[in-house]
Amino acid sequence: MCCFCVPGWPSFYDLVKEESVTVTDDFAYGMHRVETSCSQCGSHLGHLFDDGPRPTGKRYCINSASLGFQSASASASSPPSNGDGTGAGAGPGGAVGGKTEL
Predict the structure, then answer these.
(1) What's residue 100's pLDDT?
(2) How does pLDDT run across 37-93, given as a tens digit for each residue?
Protein backbone atom coordinates (compact mmCIF):
# COMPACT_ATOMS: atom_id res chain seq x y z
CA MET A 1 0.00 0.00 0.00
CA CYS A 2 1.35 3.42 -0.88
CA CYS A 3 1.67 6.13 1.71
CA PHE A 4 -0.85 8.54 0.16
CA CYS A 5 -3.48 5.84 0.86
CA VAL A 6 -2.61 5.48 4.54
CA PRO A 7 -4.37 8.00 6.80
CA GLY A 8 -2.29 9.41 9.61
CA TRP A 9 1.14 9.25 7.95
CA PRO A 10 2.91 12.52 8.74
CA SER A 11 4.29 14.52 5.86
CA PHE A 12 7.01 17.16 5.69
CA TYR A 13 8.13 19.64 3.06
CA ASP A 14 11.89 19.31 3.66
CA LEU A 15 14.60 17.34 5.43
CA VAL A 16 16.79 18.64 8.24
CA LYS A 17 19.68 16.37 7.16
CA GLU A 18 19.54 15.39 3.47
CA GLU A 19 22.28 12.79 3.93
CA SER A 20 19.96 10.76 6.20
CA VAL A 21 17.56 9.84 3.39
CA THR A 22 18.19 8.07 0.08
CA VAL A 23 15.68 8.50 -2.75
CA THR A 24 15.13 5.94 -5.52
CA ASP A 25 12.60 5.42 -8.29
CA ASP A 26 9.80 3.03 -7.34
CA PHE A 27 7.73 1.47 -10.13
CA ALA A 28 5.65 -0.88 -7.94
CA TYR A 29 1.88 -1.06 -8.40
CA GLY A 30 2.08 0.11 -12.03
CA MET A 31 3.00 3.71 -11.21
CA HIS A 32 6.12 5.79 -10.76
CA ARG A 33 6.86 7.15 -7.29
CA VAL A 34 10.01 8.21 -5.47
CA GLU A 35 10.77 5.97 -2.50
CA THR A 36 12.59 7.32 0.55
CA SER A 37 14.78 4.99 2.58
CA CYS A 38 17.21 5.28 5.47
CA SER A 39 20.73 6.03 4.24
CA GLN A 40 22.20 4.00 7.12
CA CYS A 41 20.21 0.75 7.03
CA GLY A 42 18.14 0.93 3.83
CA SER A 43 14.75 0.62 5.58
CA HIS A 44 11.72 1.92 3.69
CA LEU A 45 10.59 5.24 5.15
CA GLY A 46 7.88 6.34 2.73
CA HIS A 47 7.63 8.29 -0.51
CA LEU A 48 8.40 11.75 -1.86
CA PHE A 49 5.77 13.59 -3.93
CA ASP A 50 5.89 16.86 -5.87
CA ASP A 51 2.56 18.18 -4.58
CA GLY A 52 3.75 19.65 -1.29
CA PRO A 53 3.50 23.12 0.21
CA ARG A 54 5.84 26.05 -0.18
CA PRO A 55 8.72 26.66 -0.02
CA THR A 56 9.87 23.35 -1.59
CA GLY A 57 6.76 22.00 -3.31
CA LYS A 58 7.75 18.57 -2.00
CA ARG A 59 5.84 16.26 0.34
CA TYR A 60 7.86 13.66 2.22
CA CYS A 61 5.22 11.16 3.33
CA ILE A 62 7.08 9.29 6.07
CA ASN A 63 6.02 6.30 8.19
CA SER A 64 5.69 7.63 11.74
CA ALA A 65 7.26 4.43 13.14
CA SER A 66 10.57 5.61 11.66
CA LEU A 67 10.47 9.00 13.39
CA GLY A 68 11.64 10.20 16.79
CA PHE A 69 10.13 13.50 17.89
CA GLN A 70 11.45 16.24 20.11
CA SER A 71 9.87 19.55 20.97
CA ALA A 72 10.96 22.67 19.13
CA SER A 73 12.17 24.07 22.45
CA ALA A 74 14.48 21.08 23.12
CA SER A 75 18.17 21.76 22.72
CA ALA A 76 19.97 20.38 19.68
CA SER A 77 21.96 18.05 21.93
CA SER A 78 18.88 16.46 23.53
CA PRO A 79 17.99 12.96 22.37
CA PRO A 80 14.66 12.59 20.55
CA SER A 81 11.61 11.89 22.68
CA ASN A 82 9.21 9.01 22.23
CA GLY A 83 6.48 10.81 24.13
CA ASP A 84 6.85 9.00 27.44
CA GLY A 85 9.51 11.30 28.88
CA THR A 86 12.37 8.82 28.57
CA GLY A 87 14.00 10.58 25.63
CA ALA A 88 14.49 7.28 23.81
CA GLY A 89 12.88 8.01 20.46
CA ALA A 90 11.77 5.53 17.85
CA GLY A 91 14.32 6.89 15.41
CA PRO A 92 17.43 9.05 15.31
CA GLY A 93 15.70 12.31 14.47
CA GLY A 94 12.92 14.74 15.11
CA ALA A 95 10.49 17.06 13.40
CA VAL A 96 10.59 20.84 13.56
CA GLY A 97 8.45 23.31 11.61
CA GLY A 98 7.55 21.17 8.57
CA LYS A 99 10.98 19.57 8.33
CA THR A 100 11.93 16.10 9.42
CA GLU A 101 15.20 14.73 10.73
CA LEU A 102 15.53 10.98 10.38
Answers:
(1) 58
(2) 999 999 999 999 999 999 999 999 998 888 877 788 765 555 544 343 333 333 344
Of residues 79, 2, 76, 93, the one with CA closest to residue 40:
93
Size of the chain, expressed as the number of residues it contains = 102
Cα–Cα distance measured from residue 24 to residue 3, given in angstroms and rounded to the nearest whole number? 15
CATH architecture, domain 12-66: Beta Complex (2.170)
Could you give the count of Cα atoms lying within 13 Å of 68 in the half-sphere of its Cβ?
Answer: 16
Determine contact, residues 47/34, Cβ cutoff 8 Å: yes
The strand order across the sheet containing 33-38 reads 11-12, 59-62, 44-49, 33-38, 21-26
Give the residue extent of every domain in the chain.
12-66
For the annotated catalytic residues, the residue numbers are 61
